[in-house]
Amino acid sequence: MDAKEIIHCAVQIERSLADRSYGTILTLLGDLGKSQVTAEQLETTDIVKVLYRLLRSCSDDSVKQTAKGLLSKWKRQYSKGAHGVKSKEASRRVSPPHEAGDGAVSKQEDSHFEVEASCSFSSVRSKCVQLLLSALCPEPPDQHKATDLAADIEKHVHELHTSSQVKYKACVRSRVANLRNPKHKHLCQGLLSGALSPEVFSRMSAEEMAGAELRQLREEYSWRGVSERQLPQGVEGTQTQKIRCKNCGGSDCRVTQVSRGALFLPAWVRQSSPDDDSMTFVTCSGCGQQWYHSGWVCL
Q1: Which of 3, 39, 65, 208 could make an SS bond with 204 (beta carbons 3.0 to 4.6 A apart)?
Q2: Which of the pair, 41 or 202, is modelled with greater confidence?
Q3: What is the dihedral of CA 216, 178, 169, 138, to 10 degrees?
């Protein structure tokens, strides 16, 4: 049985445990017992973790006994020292729980998972520091300084996203991508020169990390978008003294003619005859009163 088949078997065991299909679990455990599982496969697959979860969650005694027997078999097989240090590590990973009850199983499994999770996340953090260091591209005189900068940046990013490993990785990827971008050389120069602190850099958004050229391009696009969506300004119209305002009695007025298509009117209003394609109205310069030609009072 290869690694892919073992992983598939582990997934099937977890699904069957959720569905309480204990007969299927016994069949899968039997297949694992008949197969030759190597120490390397135990290290690279999650089959041991699945069996520990099975011991803690399963209520069927026959399933639990079979799982314990399989773990004991693997322990005896890889505790003889025939495979060196890796065999001893595999033996510790597959060590079966004590017979004290499910409480002992739960405590042993939880501590095992906590230690393994902390170790794996520590390796992730170390890898992130290496990625940040390679993205800074330091010259020989600045290599020591760049190493400290990469560690400080990773530390501040970890403080920002301690509760979410996904956000932590996304934030690190964003810093690395911007540092590697040839158009964002100002970031590396600012960090190495001290003008940009690691704490500020760890909190910067994508817009803040952008270079001057990209910022100018974004501002231009924003300005164009705003200009295209601005409402039309009012038309001044033609000044005339030939019309009297009914409201104030003044004769200082302006006549304006606009196309109906330029107005924010419903479709049934705009669909008129060619003769009514334009709309003419008068605005009094004295009081601001506005009316259409039907209400004109001509002198």
Answers
A1: 208
A2: 202
A3: -150
